[in-house]
Amino acid sequence: MYTIDLRGKHALVMGVANKESAAWAIVQALAGAGARIALNYQVERLATRVQDLAATLDNPLVAPCDVTHPDEVESLFSLVEQEFGSLDILVHSLAFANRDEFAKEFVDTSRDGFLQAIEISAHSLISLSKAALPLMQKAGGGSVMALTYLGGERVVAGYKLMGPTKATLEANVRYLAENLGPHNIRVNAISAGAMRTLSLAGIPGGRNFLLDLPERTPLKRNITQAEVGDTALYLASSLSSGVTGETIHVDAGYHIIGL
Question: Alpha-carbon distance 211 to 194, whole Å?
């Protein structure tokens, strides 16, 4: 039997929203295996929420970082280097689009709204990976992972501009995997099925996914946040040492089903 042991490893998890988020489930899985965790919060009003969650961890690092501000990204990674020395794991769980865009027809998506969604939800994986590179080189390699959704591969009603945004994110995963592979850095994505999260609540009709999907999946159920956490634990460990550039679906098999 394999036991995943991440003691002595350091992980930075970007985008924890609350205790129901997939990112928090990933934190719990990584911390449960012994990794020391760093978390960010975007704005001051979210600081208390993230700090309260971090207080349940062993010796965490919590710092502000809005990925649209390069100086804040630089400051975060400088702090990570100061506290951790190196970095083994980077988790990207960042996604945002202005709510007003979801009220429009897709053809009416605004330029500003689209560019904002791309910057925060997709380009940030590139900028964060660049900042993580020297710290992962110090560690002798690392694992980068991003959270995505089936709407990047297929049209999902109500998902609108986030579909092309996630498609860009998944392409970034593949290109980063090729670019960073020589540094022994693996880059993968987890395509999670519908879960009761703030992200799902932000999509018009999103809650209906939880009601409609179970009968359409091979496993006849929705997934849990813990299952996403377990997949991230696998990707963070040596058990996935030969896996890079992949999008792993954790959706009870929904992505294989046709009409």
Answer: 10
**In the predicted model, is pLDDT for residue 70 greater than 70?**
yes
Give the separation between CA 208 and CA 213, rounded to whole angstroms: 8
Alpha-carbon distance of 109 to 121, in angstroms, equals 16
For residue 45, pLDDT beyond 90: no
Give a three-class secondary structure readout of 51-108.
HHHHCCCCCCEEEECCCCCHHHHHHHHHHHHHHHCCCCEEEECCCCCCHHHHCCCHHH
pLDDT reading at 211 higher than 70: no
Active-site amino acid positions: 149, 159
In contact, 146 and 125? CB cutoff 8 Å: yes
Q: What is residue 194's predicted lDDT score, i.e. its pLDDT?
A: 83
Question: What pLDDT score was predicted for residue 75?
Answer: 98
Task: Write phi, then psi, for 85 (nearest 5 degrees).
Answer: 90, -40
Mean pLDDT of the chain: 94
Residues 173, 188: contact at Cβ < 8 Å? yes
259 CB neighbour count, 10 Å cutoff: 2
Give the Cβ contact number of residue 231 at 10 Å: 24
